[in-house]
Specification:
alpha+beta, Deoxyribonuclease I, Chain A, six-stranded mixed beta sheet
Length: about 250
């Protein structure tokens, strides 16, 4: 099974580019999307040309903001939305699809913001999200993918010294949040498969960052430790454009 995750930075905008042919070419069994910036109906309308997928989407209360989706060829046993914490369930950031052998969660983790105004909120989110995932794990393993808005380690961004404790996405509080997942048995599949390989999944639109590969790896597939023996591949598709992110994926 090939599963893809992609922060599209607006599903309606990216479908006017090469998104549809790119996704048809990759031919993933499941496509998880973040930052759709659209209502459920608008997401379904935008991806109608992708035949063979059932579409599940979650939207924020605020129009044109946040939002997630799962496009799947295999019908899930069950689909749920959000984590059941009112404070965190207003922005359409989580969808969970249950399959026979695992739960698949797509997530768009809140950004702490350029002025770090949401850093405290982000810490609360990380703690509650870990509790939510460990609750699911009591039933079956989890596969968690999406934009986590944090570079976990220094090799996960091009300029760690310049950004450490100065920029959203590389604050120690955010790093601690990611460390809590991996130290509690929900592992970074890319590192499991690729060791210390340096590859990024997001680049600023400023200063030709993508052309210079001055990037960050902030998009992840985290998997329950028990699934590592079934992990065939974990990859980042730098060649796919259309967003300031690129897709990441696993084969399991």
């Amino acid at each position: 099974m090939k599963i893809l995750s992609f922060n599209v930075t607006g599903i309606r905008a990216i479908t006017k580019k090469d998104f549809i042919p790119d996704m048809k070419n990759i031919n993933a069994d499941i496509i998880c999307l973040q930052e759709t910036k659209a209502s459920v109906d608008q997401v379904k309308q935008a991806v109608t040309e992708l035949n063979g997928y059932t579409v599940y989407a979650n939207e924020a209360e605020r129009k044109g903001y946040s939002g997630t989706a799962i496009l799947t060829k295999e019908t899930p046993l069950n689909v749920t939305y959000d984590m059941g914490v009112e404070e965190h369930d207003k922005e359409g950031r989580i969808i969970c699809a249950e399959y026979t052998e695992f739960f698949l969660i797509t997530v768009y983790v809140p950004n702490s913001g350029s002025e770090l105004l949401r850093l405290d909120y982000r810490q609360s989110w990380d703690q509650q999200f870990l509790t939510y995932l460990k609750g699911l794990e009591k039933t079956k393993p989890v596969v968690v993918c999406g934009d986590f808005n944090v570079a976990h380690k220094a090799i996960d961004l091009a300029r760690p010294k310049q950004n450490y404790n100065k920029a959203a996405g590389y604050m120690q509080e955010e790093i601690d949040g990611m460390e809590a997942f991996t130290s509690n048995g929900i592992l970074d599949s890319f590192r499991v498969k690729n060791g210390d390989e340096i590859k990024y999944s997001w680049w600023s639109y400023r200063g030709g960052a993508r052309e210079k590969n001055v990037g960050w790896r902030i998009d992840y597939f985290l998997i329950s430790e028990i699934l590592t023996s079934k992990l065939k591949d974990a990859f980042i598709l730098n060649e796919i454009h259309g967003s300031d992110h690129c897709p990441v994926g696993i084969e399991i």
